[in-house]
Amino acid sequence: MAEPILATRNLTIAFGGFRAVDGVNLDIKQGTIHALIGPNGAGKTTCFNLLTKFLAPTSGSIIYKGRDITPLRAADIARLGIVRSFQISAVFPHLTALENVRIALQRKRGASFDFWRSERVLKALDEPAAALLEDVGLQAFAGMPAGQLPYGRKRALEVATTLALDPDMLLLDEPLAGMGHEDVERMAALIRRVAANRTILMVEHNLSVVAALSDRISVLARGRLLAEGDYATISQDARVMDAYLGTGHG
Amino acid sequence: MKGYTRTFVILALLLAIGPYILYPIFLMKVLCFALFACAFNLLLGYGGLLSFGHAAYFGMASYVCAHAAKIWGWPPELCLLLGTSAAGLLGLVFGALAIRRQGIYFAMITLALAQMIYFFALQATFTGGEDGIQSVPRGNLFGVINLASDLTLYYVVAAIFLAGFLAIFRMIHSPFGQVLKAIRDNEPRMVSLGYRTSQYKLLVFVLSAVLAGLAGATKVVVFQLASLTDVHWMMSGEVILIVLVGGMGTILGPVVGAFIIVAMENYLAPLGAWVTVIQGLVFVVCVMLFRQGIVGLFERSLARLKKSPR
Predict the structure, then answer these.
(1) Nearest CB neighbour to A113, from listed B194, B197, B203
(2) Domain segments of chain B: what residues?
(3) Which of A139, A203, A250, B88 minimizes the number of CB atoms within 10 Å of its CB?
């Protein structure tokens, strides 16, 4: 078995007495699309927050490319090439679509503490930013404040912003949530395309998309890892059925 | 960019002819408060950080500037520089403490720290306690420009204001300013993009404190007085009032707000305590009817006018 790009060992976080994530071991293989599913409150988003250090785990460790990244801060995780998205679309509403992408490119340019310089120095980034927008079909919206974009377009903009960092690994938190039918198809195609040379871990409720996209699926319930495997295995698993439907309904 | 150049030219012209229309001392007071408010607006309107203790930087700079001018007999340019640096240093220390918390906690920490400065100013000997530091000499700028004449001093103050105003404009429209606006819009997302946001927040806090200090120090040269009023929490409140009335997150909002609030204080002075009541009413009306303040409202109507003829 190939070395996993991202792995967790016994990852746990407790809020008071409640273990939202409880001893989870994940192995995400390089170049795969790995889905994290489970009923509401299973700890999927908390798991994401732990992986990206938006929350600090109570115990356990996170290993990225063979290196223990558990003590790192959130911004440093991003700098290593693990970039996350958010459940609620995370754009910068008062910046234009182009500026949204450019802000990500600007980070790679180096620290932006130069308050004495004109923003015209950022013009050099406009071209690659425009190319990224075109990639997700947003070229017509470049000058529009991101807050005014329709919902599906905001999600696409978010992906473009994330891709601007050229991350090795993407963590997508419900990328299809709240989308209309045609947006879902467009986004699924986009995810498949960006996954070509990257690793993706995604939380998603749309099981047909999960089935179509993912190479491997981990099922969480009540903070614990319930089952793991490809879609065929998972969909046959009695414990998974149980967690989704509850005992006594099957 | 062209629209902004026009704004600057108009502003510079207004500054040039101002003292021939209005009383120079009144205008200098407006300019000091306008610069103070611009500094505060940089932090609130563009950094999204509500400080409730900006009087600390304004007041500390005014005490240090007054002390240097009166006791040490320093020339005004060095007094201004020292006062401004003191405010910056204070901003660095207080900012580093306050940015660890967000929202209301951030505001409360800045308030608590500013209150410490207030009681320090009340108790320390170099501040003169209740008396403050009075009859501070204006001196000669660079040893040649005598600041005793109000008109001469006015142009110096106008130049300081314009320099500060342009500096803030540049900060807002710099690579740093872009990051700042993005952090204001969505800080978690900026973290997820790999930005160490607290460093940026600290820098804008210090820059804002420095410029607030410049305003406080300039005020000392104008009124020849540093007093407890400068460090009182009401001063922190007043700058919030000015920025919100004028228009938070707009370039000209703080300037317009300062003009309105200072004009009310000056010309409604015979009404005594009623001025505060009227200011309160204006504030409530502004917040209820136009959240973006007077300049924000004006910009929106202008944008609508531009759209409609087609």
Answers:
(1) B203
(2) 2-235
(3) A250
The neighbour count for residue A94, using CB atoms within 10 Å, is 15
Report the C-alpha gap between A18 and A13 in whole angstroms: 8
What are the phi and psi torsion angles at B54 (to 5°)?
-75, -15
In this prediction the pTM is 0.88
Encode pLDDT of B151-179 as tens digits: 888 999 999 999 999 999 999 999 999 99
pLDDT for the residue numbered B308: 65
pLDDT of residue B248: 87
Q: Which residues of A touch B207 (CB under 8 A)?
A: 115
Closest CA to A89 of A166, A171, A147: A147
* Amino acid at residue number A182: E
Q: Is B79 buried (19+), middle (13-18) or exposed (0-12) by CB count in 10 A? A: buried
Residue to mutate among B5, B184, B189, B205, with most A CBs inside 10 A, is B189
pLDDT tens digits along A157-174: 988 898 898 899 999 888
| Greater pLDDT, A89 or B276 | B276
Angle between helix axes B233-246 and B24-41 (nearest 10 degrees) is 90
Strands (E), chain A: 4-15, 18-29, 33-37, 59-64, 67-68, 82-84, 169-173, 199-203, 216-221, 224-229
ipTM: 0.85
Say how many CA atoms lie within 13 Å of B289 toward its Cβ.
12
Shortest Cα–Cα distance, A146 to chain B (Å): 11
CB B171 within 8 A of CB A115: yes
Q: How sure is the predictor about B309, in pLDDT bands with cuts at 50, 70 and 90?
A: low
Considering only CB atoms, which chain B residues are within 8 Å of A93? 185-186
Contacts of B151 (CB under 8 A, 6+ apart): B19, B24
pLDDT for residue A150 = 87
pLDDT tens by residue, B232-245: 998 898 999 999 98
CB B133 within 8 A of CB B66: yes
Please determine, for residue B97, whether its predicted confidence score (pLDDT) is greater than 90.
yes
What does DSSP assign to residue B250? Answer: -
Mention every residue, 6+ apart, whose C-beta is less than 8 A from residue B47: B180, B183, B184, B201, B204, B205, B208
Structure tokens at A76: 């440093």
Contact between residue A153 and residue A174 where contact means Cβ atoms under 8 Å apart: no
Residue in B179, B185, B186 closest to A112 by CB: B179
Structural domains of chain A sorted by starting position, each given as residue range(s) with its CATH number in brackets: 4-245 (3.40.50.300)
